[in-house]
Write a structure and sequence with these properties.
By secondary structure, this protein is α/β, with parallel strands linked by helices. The chain is built from 9 helices and 5 strands, in the order αααβαβαβαβαβαα.
Length: about 210
């Protein structure tokens, strides 16, 4: 039974059940219920007429005909984060750092700026960790496109965006919430130890979250 018909059917069914409750065995009330049970989608109710008491009969229509309410699917636990970096090693390091803080959850990754923009549109992250030097489209161009209609906040994580430098200042001018420099270049493996806390702190600031305890 479609939703529009159901919304008309259920009140009429309840009224007919109430009439039967007021006059048990009333032939006209029973006939009315049987006629209602001939409606498309309601045929299964016919077998309960004259068997169930009127109050139970009214509830039976709700149970059998109204679609069950499904609990919403659990989304990611924490603010969704997208990583855009052309280095698989750096993406792994960033994943490991983000995993340390339950306030965040990785939504996805991209290996260049163009793919990153597509992922931003598709995933709608709360926060994007963005490299600057990448193939296809660099991070500054991503920021220029994102500034027009992109979702969430962007935190630049790049070896070429040194604090106070020209690239970092341009990134901030374009709307980046912050800049965290990679300590030793694009493939640095010491970032987890040297910059992990700084990155998480900057990520929390970008989203207005309190500092981790």
């Amino acid at each position: 039974m479609d939703a529009e018909l159901l919304e008309a059917f259920l009140p009429e069914w309840a009224v007919a059940c109430a009439r039967l409750a007021a006059a048990p065995g009333d032939a006209r009330a029973l006939a009315n219920l049987r006629a209602l049970a001939e409606a498309p989608g309601a045929e299964a109710l016919a077998q309960h007429i004259g068997v169930l008491p009127p109050d139970a009969l009214a509830a039976q229509a709700e149970t059998m005909l109204r679609p069950p309410m499904h609990a919403p699917q659990d989304g990611p636990k924490g603010a969704g984060v997208l990583i855009i970096d052309d280095s698989p090693t750096m993406r792994r390091i960033l994943r490991e750092i983000i995993a340390e803080d339950g306030a965040f959850a990785i939504l996805g990754e991209a290996g260049d700026g163009e793919a990153g923009l597509a992922a931003m549109a598709r995933l709608q992250p709360s926060l994007t960790l963005l490299d600057i030097e990448m193939p296809v489209m660099n991070g500054l161009d991503v920021l220029r496109r994102w500034a027009l209609r992109g979702p969430g906040q962007v935190l630049v994580v790049s070896s070429s965006a040194l604090s106070g430098g020209e690239v970092a200042l341009e990134a901030m001018r374009l709307g980046a919430a912050g800049v965290v420099a990679k300590p030793s270049g694009a493939l640095s493996l010491d970032m987890a130890q040297q910059r992990g806390a700084d990155l998480l702190r900057a990520a929390r600031i970008a989203l207005g979250l309190p500092h981790a305890a």
